Fold:
Amino acid sequence: QVQLGESGGGLVQAGGSLSLSCTASGTQFSINTMGWLRQAPGKQRELVAAVTADGNTNYADSVKGRFTISRDNVKNAVFLQMNSLKPEDTAVYYCHAEGIAGPFKFETWGQGTQVTVSS
Structure:
């Protein structure tokens, strides 16, 4: 079983920065894609950014140029640097990973961390 542990988030004023971290733990697994999704109150969960094992990245249009996703394959960790934050970035941010554990594919989520941007 692969589990994700998140850290970071919090409260920041508009224009400020925050960083999120997520580390995967378990036995005999390899991760293909790691990323972050977010869900604001009353809205559907949406992709923020994702990164593949070979470093290809994908960003939501709303965060391009402001957020940067990075990954440490040795530590099975993914990071999200969020700059120039806006009130509309307020949401619960979830770490996500998919890959292979033993003979099985897996997909797993973190518990979520709150990001609040005040105007």
